[in-house]
Amino acid sequence: MQHEIPVDRLGPRGEAMANAISACVHCGFCLPTCPTYVVMGEEENSPRGRIFLMKEVLEGRLSPDDAAGAIDNCLACQACVSACPSGVEYGDLITAYRLHAEPRRSRPPGERAQRATVAATLPKPKRFRAAARVGMATRALARLAPRRMRAMVDQLPRSLPKARPLPEFTPAEGERRARVALLQGCVQRVLDPEIGWATLRVLARNGVEVVVPQQHECCGALAIHAGREGQAKRLARATIEAFPDDVDAVIANAAGCGSGMTEYPLLLAGESDEEAARAFAARVRDISTFLDELGLVEPRSEPRRRRVVYHDACHLAHAQGVREAPRRLLRAAGFEVVTPANPEICCGSAGTYNVERPEIAGELGRRKATSLLAAEPDVIAAGNIGCLNQIRTHLDELGSRTEALHTVELLDRAYSGEA
Q: Which CATH architecture has domain 7-104?
């Protein structure tokens, strides 16, 4: 395939970018599914507008700084991928482009400092916990701080749960049906460690033996999506090294992490460990997909049939194509499952987006929380800690006490009879 884009000068990810750009026919099917286009109504803040801008940069007609605003506004939610009739791999494009463009960007000092702080803090659970406690203690003073600092503090919860590290080994209950390795995650183990414990209990109840790499901290998904290539590669390689080979699957219970780990082959393209990255990515499964394929052991108790509105996390539904598995699991556990209006529109979390673009993220968060509540749920379910944190923040702003829980937490409650 011939491209005007100088593929040979763009490195091993050049072909992926060129193929995605050339596949776009600018039909506009992506527009109503793009959260920034829905909110802002501007062509440059739509997928096809960004594709045009990225093409211009890669062909040398624009500098990365010329296209920076529209590219940074992109949540990389990949709703456009689900809507595209031409099969444009926008997810590969935006990831590869950011890895290419970020070192060539000139960001303002305050923006650079914020991004560096986030990159140094979130992947380290102990460091993040300490920073979060300082932020919560000085929340009132943060109102006097620059906007970027306020945005970081605004995303913190009112309180932090106690640290509850997961054990290295959890045996299966009854006959062993599978053996897996579970990713603890970095942000999730600080903000909501109960998700990890619920995952262990549900897997064990389903006859799954679980090992948890103890020294591993972060899979690198946040660094990948921020275009921080050096950090992303280090964390990806550390993840591949940390996880055992003698397991049936590597389980992620955070959609962003699972999606990030499936991007390792793109991240490490052309490197000596590209094949190792492919082999690892092929073993990654979201907890809902794994349980659905395994066959859920249905709870013995009959829970009161609660109405669950299920929120599709973008990096589960769009990036990984996982939509029905969580719903099937919840129905099998005795819940009534409903879908809110406009489920394809992002909630505005998107990794660190709600810190870097708080105004857009705030508008999307309010819309999502309102849409979820309009479905009149007893409880809200989602498969990603970022979404849960964002939804809880905006439920609180709306004065709602509706719980927002991980899908696996609801399964755990069904097994215990609490549902």
A: Orthogonal Bundle (1.10)
